[in-house]
Hints:
This protein is α/β, with parallel strands linked by helices. The protein is 38% helix and 11% strand.
Amino acid sequence: MTDLSDLNLEIIACRRCPRLVSHREQMASLKRRAYRQDTYWGRPVPSWGDPAARVLLVGLAPGAHGSNRTGRMFTGDGSADFLTPALFRAGFASQPTSIDAADGLRLDDLYVTAVVHCAPPENKPLPAEVSRCRPYFRAHLAGLPRLQVVIALGQIAFQGVLETLRASGQGMPSPRPRFSHGGEISFPAFALLASYHPSRQNTQTGRLTPLMFDRVFLRARELLR
């Protein structure tokens, strides 16, 4: 079984994608005005959470001034401000805020990862960059022996999960599933749930509401055996 601590150390040291290395380090140097006094993480952001989790949450990639600054997935930006209260309401998080890596937040029965571990320009990783990061996602699946539910946040994360399963020889439904919020697919090892990503462009426009988000996590709870 994959050791998650060793895997995360490997992720932190990764420099496979020159474009992403350049961007994450440039953002850490330039900084956003509101965070001028902060020391940015500026490296690949490791996964984190409960190693005995039955639920795996899969995001797109670190935000340039969120996770790339704080060093923890979904921490310190607008996506965290929308996601963490939902996790708290569903009983997966110990508190409704995720501000920095030392804020005391704990996850229960939930582990968080992403299909890309470095902040990409314009939040858009290239297909080749997603592909280079795929072995890390595959290793996370192997390192969570109690896994029953995977929640993909956004279409890129959803397709990343499907492609990882296909490349691992675990089969693919025919026709290939299409992304839709609230979509659900059953695989032999786990159920895959799809949700819109909690980005500001989704939450501030009403495309994703707290009620819509809560229903995804409620369904995850229902699926746990």
